[in-house]
Amino acid sequence: MRTSNSASALGPVRRRVVASTVAAFLGLGVAFGSGLAAPAFAADSATLSGIILGVGSNETQRIVTWYSSADTAQQVQLAPTSSLVDGAFPASAVTFAASGAANIATSGGFNRHATLTGLKENTGYSYRVGFEGNWSSAYAFKTQSFEGDYDFLFYGDPQIGSSGNLAKDQAGWVDTVNVSLAANPNAEILVSGGDQVETANTEAQWDSFLAPTQLKSYPWAATIGNHDVGGKAYEQHLYTPNTDRSGAYYSNGTPSSNTSGGDYWYIYKDTLFIDLNSNSYATAQGGGGDAAHLAYVTDVINQHGTEAKWKVLVYHHAIYSPADHAKDADNKIRRVDFSQKFSDLGVDLVLQGHDHSYSRSYLIKNGAKADATEQPGAADVYPGPGGVLYVTANSASGSKYYDITQPDNSGTSGAGNGADPLDAGKYWYNSVQNQEHVRSYVKVEVRNDKLVVQDLRSGTCAAPNAAVELAKSPCTETGQAVGSIVDKVTVHPYHGSGQDIQVNVPNAAPGEFGWTIDGYNGLVDLGTAVDHNGDYFEATGSINPIAVSDSRRSLAPWSISAGVSDFKDGAKTFSGSYLGWTPKVVTAGAGAKAGAAVGSAYDGGGQGLSVSRGLGSADQGHARGTAKLGADLDLKIPGSVDKGNYRATLTITALSS
């Protein structure tokens, strides 16, 4: 007896019907076999490229985006990696239909994306894109626990092509991804600070950005930078969940134009992430400006804020940064309206790019330093009500660095760029500023009762470091190694005037549903049929009992059914419809009820067991336990059937929610 189980439902959020089948031999002969038809090959072939894994709406989802040279219907095929045999996807693999459209002329070809849903936690998956006969290579990713602690990584401005040397920019970017994930292999999402490329629609730059193979295995949470916004390639390459693509969130107010835009959100474990297109900031441009973003953030937090412990905002244009963009007019305005609203809404952390330097703000509340006594570089901070931490990431690729600029006398709160009273060389709003002209990335450890934010070196002055190699930025060797810490701070949340009590509840054992042939799965031999006056032959017997076990907490319904093939002896055959049965519960348990009796087609026509019939079942809410199901068989064969030793296959199917 061989049992083959199809993939169970891929996750806890949506239930699917699950089927498992097995073949049992029935007597009166042999002839058992099975085979798969050769796959049909599509008439058109396509070159599949630019594959990238993105975040979904929650931890049970991922989005895959890619380019295709042909405008064909395409899919993502997904299966647990453990179910692949010699790299071949099993018949139980699930497929997700892709959507997409033609790319703009400068990109050529077509774009496709599909959302993978129902993922299970702590599971390795393999996937490929395309269609039957034209699949891409397979790529793998793994999910982790859907509750509890996790880490994510934040990357500032790869801006591939910015140095003028594409190969050097790619080398630095690939090295940062390699270094960061070698040090943090269990990081769960990769968050973008924007400016993936230098020139919005230059596909050679996108190819270099997509060069790290890890972008096919770790979900990328995209952000639109000012160098991405001027074309459609960003949207073609990076499809995002829950995205509002209405005109208010496009800088020119026109989603159909040759620009990218949109605001989006997702929840990952206990964190609500909201990502804004900060290129749209003034209504004079045509879009909804910052007022639209603030309304969006307010609406998302009002609807989903209670579903998460932490609120993290991500956008490109840093409003508290120390370098070339520190005194930009739009940033000064946003220091007033953004800061006030973010404090009111209880935002914990804001991640920014754009200024190609690292900074960590003091805790900011309503446009001012929340606590005048907070010291520069403090290792632990306590936001209190309304305190928000703003972090700006340096270049992750080394393609461009901006030098730190000097404060002025424009004020030490609100829109001002005045000096820090505690350190006159820094802006009033920054606890830490750093520019060493070396690549770095930000690691955020999300814990039950704290956020730990670290800026980590992913390079040194040595190559790959394009801006330094090409003499565009000086670099003074600090002696700090790759992986060393530039800055680290622990954010301790505010719990109000009372005391919060927390407890982690682990996953309860889900229990299992399964069935087996009880005992030895021998041939069900019905012996020699009895001749009834030349009119028909009859043989009787019983199937090998089926043991059903159900210990699931869900107490979901289940059913066991079976159907029989035609009986064969070489070229001789007769229909399986002549086999009937009377199911029975041999041993009670698991809510088992016997199926209805089915007569032989010889007695009154019909299809007998040539179609699948119910052997036993249980309703929703049944007791846990084990049952044994059996059935008495009744085979009546027309007298015209030739003499022979016939055999058929009974295929048993188990269904469970």
Automatic annotation (TrEMBL):
Residues 181-358 form the Calcineurin-like phosphoesterase domain. InterPro entries: Calcineurin-like_PHP, Metallo-depent_PP-like, PAPs-like, PAPs_N, Purple_acid_Pase-like_N, TAT_signal. Gene3D superfamilies: 3.60.21.10, Purple acid phosphatase-like, N-terminal. Keywords: Signal. This is Metallophosphoesterase. One of its GO terms (molecular function) is metal ion binding. Residues 50-143 form the Purple acid phosphatase N-terminal domain. PANTHER family: ACID PHOSPHATASE RELATED, PURPLE ACID PHOSPHATASE. The keyword Disulfide bond does not apply. The keyword Ribonucleoprotein does not apply. PROSITE patterns: TAT.
